Each structure stands twice: as C-alpha cells, then as structure tokens.
Amino acid sequence: MQAQGVFSNNKAISWRVRVALGLLFVLALFTVWITNSLLTDRFTQTTRNRAELRLALYSGNLLSELRQNAIVPQLLARDPTLIGALNSSDYSQSTQRLISFVEEIGAASLMLLDKDGRTVAATDRNRLGSSHSNALYFVDAMRAAGTIFAVIPRESGGYTFTYSRRVQSGGDVLGVITVEVDLQKFERAWAGISDAVLVTDSTGAIILATEPRWRGRTEAEALARQTPQSAIERAIQATADWTALPPDAYIQGEGVMRLETRIPFRGWRMASFTTYTSVRERVNGVLALEIMRFAILLAVAFYFLSRRTAFRMALFQRESAELRALNARLQREIAERERVQETLAVAEQTLEQSSKLAALGEMSAAVSHELNQPLAAMKTYLAGARLLLTRNRKDEALSSFGRIDDLIERMGAITRQLKSYARKGADALSPVDMGNALASSLSMMEPQLRQRQVQITRILPDEPVRVMGDRMRIEQVMVNLLRNAIDATRSERNPQVDIILSAGQTATLTVRDNGPGIEDLDALFEPFYTTKQPGDGVGLGLAISSGIVNDLGGRLTARNGQGGGAVFEMQLPILSSVEGESNNSHAAE
C-alpha cells in the first residue's frame, strides 16, 4: 500500500489508505467499547464486594460495642461499694470509683442514681445532683428486673444510648446504675472511610449517620432534604432507576450503590452508599492504555505511509517514544494501585475473620451443650434397638435406627451452624410452622417422656401458627424448655407437662409443669446458672434459648404458676398469611 502523504495539503490520500485507516479506526472503537463494558462490570463488582465487606465490618463492630456494654450494668449493680454507699447515703468515694471503672470499660459515662432518681455519683461531675426521676432509663429500670436499653434524643441533636439496671440489696431497691454507650465514635470513623452510612431502629428512624442532618428522620425524609450536589442525590439516582439504565450509564455520571444489612439487635438495620468514582478512574486508566496502543499503531502506519519527508518520520518516532514512556508510567501506576487495593481487601477480610473466630470460642460451649440431648436420645434408641434385635423384632429395630439417623442429621446441622459462622453471616430466615416444630421437638424427647412416664397435655389452635425464623433454632428452644420441664418434675409422683400454642398479636408457646417452681427468677437466664446436680447440666440452655428468641425479635419469659410449678412463655412475631404468601413467591423466584 502506498500513499502520496498523510498531512500534505497538495495531495489526496488514495482510497486504499482511506479503507485501511477506516478499518483501523473501527477496530479501535470496537476494542475500546468491549474493554469498557467488561472492565466496568468487573470493577463494579469489586467495588460492591469491598462495600459489602466494610458494611459487615461496621455492623459487627457496632454489635460488639453494644454487647460489651450490656454486661456492665449487671456487674456494677452487684458492686458492694456502690450498694454500701446507697445503703449508708455516703457517696464520698462513689464518683471516684465510677471514674476508675469507665476507663477500663470504654463507656461514654457512668451514673449512679438513688431511688428518687437523683444523681449521687457520676463520671461527669457536672451531673451530680441532677434529677432523672422522669427519664425513661430510670423509670423502666426501677420496674424491670433485668438490664434496660434506651435510646434518648438529645436537645443538641443526635441520640444518647443508655443501658440501665436497678441496684438492690436483699429485697429492697436502692437505686439505678446507668451506662452511656459511645456510638458516636463509629460515626466519626465511618465518615473518614465511606461515602455515607446510616443506622435505623425498628421504626425506621435514623439514629446514627455520617450526615448529622439525617438523624431523627426516616431514610426517605433524609433523601428528600438533600441538595442535588450532595451524596444523597447520587444515592437517589442510583437506587431509584439503576436497573432501568443501560450497563454503561452508571459510569458516565456520579453513580452510587446502596447496600443494606440487618443488625441482630432490637430490629436495627444499617445502610451504606458508595460512589463509583474509583470504577471510572480504573476503567479510564485501562482505556487510556488501549488508546495509546492504537495511537502507536496509527503512528507506525503513518510512518510507513509518509516516505516523502524525513521530518515527519523523525517526528513520529519521537511521538512513539513519548507514548511508550507514558504507557510504562500508566502501567506502573495501575499496578501500584491494584497492589494497594489488593492489600486493603486482604486486610479487611483478615480483620472480619479474626472477629468471627474470636466469638467462635463462645459458640463452642453452646454447641456442645446442645449436642448432649441428641446424644442421650441416641443412647436410648440404641439400647432399645439392641433389645428388639435380640427378640427378633427387626422392623421395630429399623425404626429406631431411622430415628438415630434423624438425630445424627440434627447434630450435623448444629455443627454446621458453628462452621458457617466462621465463614459468613447468619442464614436467611424462612416461614416456620410452630405446630410442626413442636411435633418434631416432642418426637426427639420421646425416649425421656416414655422413660419417665410424663403426662403431656397439648392444646393447639385449629389453624397453623407461622413465624419468620430458623426452624432448627426454634426447635432447639422448644427442646430446652421441654427438657427443663421434665427435669423439674423428677421428684413428682405424677409428673405432668402442659403445652399451649396460641396465636394473637404474637405466636405464644407456653410450657407449664407441676414441679417445685423457680427459686431465683432474676438469675434464671444468666449463663452457667443451674440448679441441677454436677454433671447434669452446665446452665447454658436457658441463656442460649433467650439469645435465640431475642435474635428472632421475640421474648422468652418465666414465672411461677399460681398452683405451683414453673411457666415458660416463648413469644415470637407472628407471620400473617399475606406475608407468608409473599415469602413463598420470593422463594419460588
């Protein structure tokens, strides 16, 4: 192929040169378009994965801080120095003692209130003498036997998060100890890393946010109040019409992705908004590299087509050298940026896994406790199967082996919970029929019931009672309640257990026995509290059951019946028929 000149004003380029340049241009456009599409999808997914990882880390840190401070009121309420100060009304050393605690605990502040709601000791001395008799955390703590959590709006904006518990000596209530949790530090930390983060309570109100103007509003209200230049306007565009845009539309503007996760604490949820700026920069870097390559190719083509002037040839050579140098610098910058991003991703994954493995030790004790019941049932079924085989009753023995296989599957499910926690978050919830779950639990307890000859009375509604939860964990709670009821009737001549399932505003399962009752209701749900003989239990059953019910948004309570015996009630949010059909349709999709 020959040409008279590329930039000559006196000669026209031949049609062959035109065709070659046109094909090269079309090839360049096609390559850039394919590269842009593929890399945009890839880098967008990488950005989403990092945002999901940060969201999981943020929610885990927030939940860890809440759980760490939840145990503090329980410990301080038993402090003999504080109890003695309330009894003697001598508070000269109380404030200093609270100050010595606050540094170790990491709480925002501590206050000790007398039974009239007056502040008698506080880490913030400016609060001494102030009255809190009408405060929610004081009133609820004086009424309740356990620890109370309260979210109190502040006049200056934002919220105060407080744990409180009453202090008592013997049967007398002396006052209330309050612990203020410092959650604002997470807002400051999030603001330095993420584009926007918010936390809503069970009502949908924003209680924590990197944008101060969002607090106290719903997410929809917060979005409506922002200006078009703000991050939230980009969030509106990204969340409202994201699926309606073509694949490359979100990289041409200020696209923002919205991610949401559930915090297993009082129905809280967390959402984050992440911009796509880094995606555009990375894609542009690669596209620039390809464009430079095509520019080099085009320069070489012009070099061979421009034979008439040595000046043009030398110029193209210099331009080619400059482009190669720029190409090398871009490659180094891209490689360095990818290395930094990979290091950050590895560090975030390591931090999240370390946090989960730290909690794995606590879960192991709970899982070992839950394996005792299937093991005991397996031992009974094996003994029965051995006896049936000696009597040549093979069909009945095979039925026992089938039940043993079901128990082994249940033990495998319990251990899979432990392994899945080490790898990822909690499993998704699904509709659970409480009647079927109760039937499975009674089937598992059948050997103990038959051995003890316990009379079981069941009262069930005509219609199915359904809740949203994890069936295995709900059955785990039922087995613990039934096992405690059977153990409580051990000294009774005619042991009897009543089981009542009812449906109202909540799904309520009541388990009542005719045993001696409960001596210490306050310490009943505390870990390692047990009235059994050594070797019969470790005191984790009710503590585990209470935690499971709380995670599912319900409540587990206990009381002594009027005619004697203990009464346990498990209340879970009921699942309406409309919600159940919606969940089934989503599952089918």
Shape: flat
- CATH topology of the domain at 429-573: the name is Heat Shock Protein 90
Cross-sheet strand order for the largest sheet: 2-1-5-4-3
* Tally of contiguous helical segments: 16
Name of the CATH first level of the domain at 429-573: Alpha Beta
| Proportion of residues in β-strands | 15-25%
- Going by CATH, what is the homologous superfamily of the domain at 429-573? Histidine kinase-like ATPase, C-terminal domain
Q: How much helical structure, as a percent, in the residues? A: 40-55%
Radius of gyration computed on alpha carbons? 34 Å
Corresponding CATH architecture of the domain at 429-573: 2-Layer Sandwich
Contiguous runs where pLDDT drops below 50 for at least 5 residues: 1-12, 227-253, 358-363, 420-426
Mean pLDDT level: 76
Query: Major sheet, described briefly?
Result: 5 strands, antiparallel
Distance between the termini: 59 Å
Number of strands: 16
Structural class determined from secondary elements = alpha+beta
GO molecular function, one term: ATP binding
Organism: Pseudosulfitobacter pseudonitzschiae
Function: Member of the two-component regulatory system DctB/DctD involved in the transport of C4-dicarboxylates. DctB functions as a membrane-associated protein kinase that phosphorylates DctD in response to environmental signals.
Protein name: C4-dicarboxylate transport sensor protein DctB
